[in-house]
């Protein structure tokens, strides 16, 4: 890919994202409300590891729901494509990420590993004999995608563990119908920890570029997931990566993406590059307002829409 074009696209995305207005920090997780709302970064990394960025690309923020992608990758590596589809599902819910109604409508089957219910189920599928070894395997997977060990924020984790009652309720519903594959409170504990690690915009670009490169981290050269596990991951991201806004995102951007309520967003152009952005204020669905503008701008400037002929 042409370096000058990517450089220009990232610069345009920075200008567009800076001008974006509206949204609010997540506040249902108390410590996320106090992150400075004017932080903003955008970055891109190609499948051969070349990197461009503007703004706050080194600020470490809570990964939140973006972690669901890497725990899904771990579930696929451990159990295979068919088992993950059977045990969790592979469709959009069309509802908010923590919807109980979505569960009720489908016999408590989570449908997607990228909503809270499916992500708790995915965490319960992580390999290991006990909670600590399951957690270690999830954290290790995040680190392989990022290319370095990813730290857990004790502050974010404490803030979430003390307020995650809704997720605990979801886990009991899953368990009741056989969709939680370890003790449900253990699954929520691990899931909450996986959401509480800290990444930067640069990390997200590397993590996305690993998917864009077919599962090989372009910085470390390590194969992180099997090539055949990348299409199902990207399919899930396209269907549910931005929750109930995923259809609008596919319609306007045409790239698989994943957001988190910490303000992070990553999108993947397979075989080409990843685009990452970070800005804490969120829209009603829980997606970064300026992050969406920035990622969308890079995708449009570079003509990356997967559905464009
Ligand atoms: N930890 C958050 C939760 O469980 C993650 C949600 C998100 O980023 N959409 O609610």
UniProtKB/TrEMBL annotation:
Keywords: Acetylation, Hydrolase
Metal-binding listed as a keyword: no
Reaction(s) catalysed by this chain's protein: L-glutamine + H2O = L-glutamate + NH4(+)
Binding site for substrate: 65, 116, 160, 167, 191, 243, 261
GO MF annotations in UniProt: glutaminase activity
UniProt EC number: 3.5.1.2
Entries under InterPro entries matching the protein: Beta-lactam/transpept-like, Glutaminase
Subunit and interaction comment: Homotetramer.
Family note: Belongs to the glutaminase family.
Protein name according to UniProt: Glutaminase
Natural source organism: Camelimonas abortus
């Amino acid at each position: 890919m042409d370096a000058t074009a990517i450089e220009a696209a990232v610069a345009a995305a920075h200008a567009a994202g800076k001008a974006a207005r509206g949204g609010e920090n997540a506040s249902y997780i108390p410590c996320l409300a106090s992150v400075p709302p004017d932080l903003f970064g955008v970055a891109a990394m190609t499948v051969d590891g070349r990197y461009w960025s503007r703004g706050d690309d080194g600020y470490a923020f809570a990964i939140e729901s973006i972690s669901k992608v890497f725990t899904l990758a771990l579930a696929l590596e451990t159990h295979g494509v068919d088992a993950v589809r059977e045990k969790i599902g592979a469709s959009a819910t069309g509802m908010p990420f923590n919807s109980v109604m979505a569960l009720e409508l489908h016999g408590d089957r989570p449908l997607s590993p990228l909503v809270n219910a499916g992500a708790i189920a995915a965490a319960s599928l992580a390999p290991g004999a006990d909670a600590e070894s399951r957690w270690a395997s999830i954290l290790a997977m995040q680190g392989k995608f990022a290319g370095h060990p990813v730290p857990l924020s004790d502050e974010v984790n404490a803030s979430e563990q003390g307020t995650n009652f809704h997720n605990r309720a979801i886990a009991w519903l899953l368990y009741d119908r056989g969709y939680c594959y370890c003790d449900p409170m253990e699954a929520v504990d691990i899931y909450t920890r996986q959401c509480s690690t800290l990444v930067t915009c640069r990390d997200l670009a590397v993590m996305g570029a690993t998917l864009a490169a077919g599962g090989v981290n372009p910085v470390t050269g390590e194969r992180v997931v099997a090539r055949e596990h990348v299409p199902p991951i990207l399919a899930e991201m396209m269907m549910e990566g931005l929750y109930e806004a995923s259809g609008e995102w596919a319609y306007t951007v045409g790239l698989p993406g994943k957001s988190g309520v910490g303000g992070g967003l990553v999108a993947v152009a397979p075989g080409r590059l990843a685009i990452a952005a970070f800005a804490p204020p969120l829209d009603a669905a829980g997606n970064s307002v300026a992050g969406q503008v920035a990622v969308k701008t890079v995708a449009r400037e570079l003509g990356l829409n997967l559905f464009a002929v």
